[in-house]
C-alpha cells in the first residue's frame, strides 16, 4: 500500500514538473548542478602544507605548526626559519603562497601553493621569474611591484596577487615569528582611466537605449563599441569573461580598493540586466563584439542562423557555457574554464589552439555577423539565464501577490 | 549557396567546439604544472584511504620551488605515498602539531 502511495506521489511530482516549461526545468536543474559543483569544489580542494616547509626554509628537518605559523627546525634543534601562507587576489581568484624567512628576517624561499589564474596569465609570471625576485629580500622591504620587484606586463592583476600574497605571509611571520609587527598596509583606492571609461560607457549605453531616433541610437552604439574596443580591449585588456562570473560565484571577490573596475564591470552589468532586463554590455561595448562587427562591415556580412538549426545551436552554446561554469566551480579555478579568445587578440598572447581559434573566428566574421557571440560565447547564455531567473521570480511574485490579495 | 553557407556554419561551430575542448584540456594541464603544489585535501585523503591502500598522490614532477640554495629545484615530495601521511587537516588555529620526515605527530 505504501509503495503504491509513493508511486502516486512520484507521478504527481512528475506531473507538476511537466507543467513547468522546459526552459525553467533546465534553469532549476542548472542551479542545482551549479550548487552541487560549488559544494564539491569547496570540499575537494585543499593543501597539505607542512611537508612543503623544508622547500622554503632550507635545512629544515622538523616543522612545528603553531596556529598559522610554521616553525622549521634544523637537525641540531635550532630554529632554521619561519613560514606562513599568505593570500592575495589575482585576476581570477585568490593566489596562495608559502613564504619562508630565516631568523635574520631574510626571505629564504617562496612556493606557490594555489593559484586559480587563467593559465596564459600565470605562465607569464613563471616565465618572468617574478617569484624568484622576492628571495633574499628583507621582511621589512616594500615587496611591491615597481619598487623592489619588477612588474610583469600583460599579467598585472596576477602579479599583484602574487606580491600581495607574499606580503601577507611576511606580515604573519613578522608578527608571530620575528616579533617585529609591520605597520598596517596602506590601500589607496584605484580609480583611473579604465573606471572612468567604463562609467562613461554605461551612461552612453543607458541614454542610447532611451533614444527614439534610430539614427542617433546607431551612432551612439558605434561610438561606445569603438571606445570599448580601444579602451576596454586593446589598451587595458579588461573585457568581461566567464572567469569573472565564476570568480563571483566561487566567492573570490577581490579587494575593492585596487579592483574597483572588477566591481563596476560585473556589478554594473548584473545590476542593469536584473533590474532593467537589458544587456548593457554585448551590443554596446563588448570589445570583441566590436572587432567582429568591424570585420562584418568590410564584407557586409549578415546574421545567418537557419531556423532548423536554431534550437541546436542555442543549446550547444548554453551547454558550453554551463560546462565552463561547472568546470570552474568544481576545480575552484575560474581561469581554467575561460575559453574566449579575448587575451589572444587584445594582448597578442596565446597557445597554438588559441591562435587557431582566434583565426577561425576572425575569418568567420567576414562571412557571418558576430559568429563568436552568436554561436560560442559563454556570456550570452549567462544573460539568458539571468533573464529567465528574473522572469520566473517576477511571475512567481505576481502570482503570490494575487493569492495574498484574494485571501 | 544556401547549402554552402550551412556547411560553413556547421564547420565553424564544430571547429570552435573542438578547439574549446582543446583549450580546456590544455588549461587543466597547465594548471597542474604551473607551480602550484598540489596535495590532497583531508577529504580526498580520507576517501582515497577508504577505497584502497595502494594509491599514491604526489606533487606533480617539475613543480618549481624558489629558494636560496639553488634557485629552481625540482620538487621531490617529502610525503609521496598517500598511506604514509596521516589524513590531518593542518589549518587548525592554536593547535600545535609537528611534522617530521614522513608524517605528523600531535
Report on the structure:
The complex is a heterodimer of chains A (407) and B (106). In chain A, a hairpin with a 4-residue loop joins β3 (79-89) and β4 (94-101). Chain A has 407 residues and is of the alpha+beta class. In chain A, α8 (242-250) packs across α12. Chain A has 2 domains: 60-176, no CATH class; 193-399, no CATH class. Chain A has helices spanning 2-18, 22-44, 53-56, 119-127, 156-176, 193-210, 214-235, 242-250, 260-276, 282-285, 287-299, 307-331, 334-337, 342-346, 352-365, 371-376, 379-406; strands at 62-66, 69-73, 79-89, 94-101, 107-114. A 5-stranded antiparallel β-sheet of chain A has the order 1-2-3-4-5. In chain B, the strands form 2 sheets. Chain B has a two-stranded antiparallel ribbon with strand order 1-2. The radius of gyration of chain B is 22 Å and the shape is rod-shaped. Chain B has helices at 2-32, 42-51, and strands spanning 64-67, 73-74, 96-100, 103-105. In chain B, β3 and β4 form a beta hairpin. Helices cover 39% and strands 13% of the residues of chain B. At the A-B interface, α3, β1, β5, α4 and α12 of A face α1, α2, β1 and β3 of B.
**Secondary-structure element pattern of chain A, one letter each:** HHHEEEEEHHHHHHHHHHHHHH
What is the overall number of helices of chain B? 2
Q: Please identify the structural class of chain A as seen in this structure.
A: alpha+beta
Please identify the oligomeric state. heterodimer
Q: How many structural domains can be distinguished in the coordinates of chain A?
A: 2
Percentage of residues in DSSP E strands of chain B:
5-15%
What is the β-strand count of chain B?
4
Mean pLDDT of chain B: 57
Overall 3D form of chain B: rod-shaped
